[in-house]
Each structure stands twice: as structure tokens, then as C-alpha cells.
From TrEMBL:
SUPFAM superfamilies: P-loop containing nucleoside triphosphate hydrolases
Domain NB-ARC: 3-78
Superkingdom of source: Eukaryota
Gene source species: Nymphaea colorata (pocket water lily)
Record-given protein name: NB-ARC domain-containing protein
InterPro entries, per database record: Apaf_helical (IPR042197), NB-ARC (IPR002182), P-loop_NTPase (IPR027417)
PANTHER family: DISEASE RESISTANCE PROTEIN RGA3, PLANT BROAD-SPECTRUM MILDEW RESISTANCE PROTEIN RPW8
Length: 106
């Protein structure tokens, strides 16, 4: 297997389900050179547990960080919001995002 001769970094982003593909691929992927790494990002701890991965939970952003990200995504500066009403709506949206960057960006 060619992977056993090379070190690699494989990034699998936003994996929701394993659906059998991991079982089919694990032997090949885990057979890479000793320094090889596989990074899987997901929202379900069950996915990480199912493959025996080392879990690193990222901390949630505070409100100010979330608000700043929201404004960047909206391409607005705080002073550009046309009314206090719009700012309050934006703040409510950010509060409901629970400090999760992916949710704020979406």
C-alpha cells in the first residue's frame, strides 16, 4: 500500500455520519506512515467515539466574539446598522447561535 510509505494529513470536515465508509476505509487510512494524521471535524461526539478518536472540544465563543463574527459575515460595522431595532434583532440572532462559529456564519 502506497500510503504506508508516505506521511499525510487527511482533513475530513463536518462529518455527520459514518454510514459504513469508515469501516471500508479505516484499514487503508490507518495504514499510513507513523507520522500520518487524520483530522475529523464533526458536531456529534458519537461519530468520534465510534472510531475511537481522541476528542478535542472547542470552547464556545463569548457573545462579543460572536457579535464581531456576525458583523464581519454581514459585512457591516456596528455603526452602520441603520437603527437600534436592527441591532437588537442581530443581537437576538447571535444569542440564539450559542457561541458556535459555524452557526453564526450560516
Amino acid at each position: 500500500n502506497e500510503l504506508s510509505k508516505s506521511k499525510f494529513l487527511l482533513v475530513l470536515d463536518d462529518v455527520w455520519e459514518l454510514d459504513g465508509w469508515w469501516g471500508d476505509s479505516a484499514g487503508i487510512l490507518l495504514g499510513g506512515a507513523k507520522e500520518s494524521k487524520i483530522l475529523i471535524t464533526n458536531r456529534k461526539v458519537e461519530v468520534s467515539q465510534a472510531i475511537g478518536a481522541k476528542i478535542h472540544k472547542l470552547p464556545q465563543m463569548c457573545f462579543d466574539e460572536s457579535w464581531s463574527l456576525f458583523l464581519r459575515v454581514a459585512k457591516k460595522q456596528e455603526h452602520e446598522l441603520e437603527s437600534h431595532h436592527l441591532k437588537r434583532i442581530g443581537e437576538k440572532v447571535v444569542a440564539k447561535c450559542g457561541g458556535m462559529p459555524l452557526v453564526v456564519r450560516w
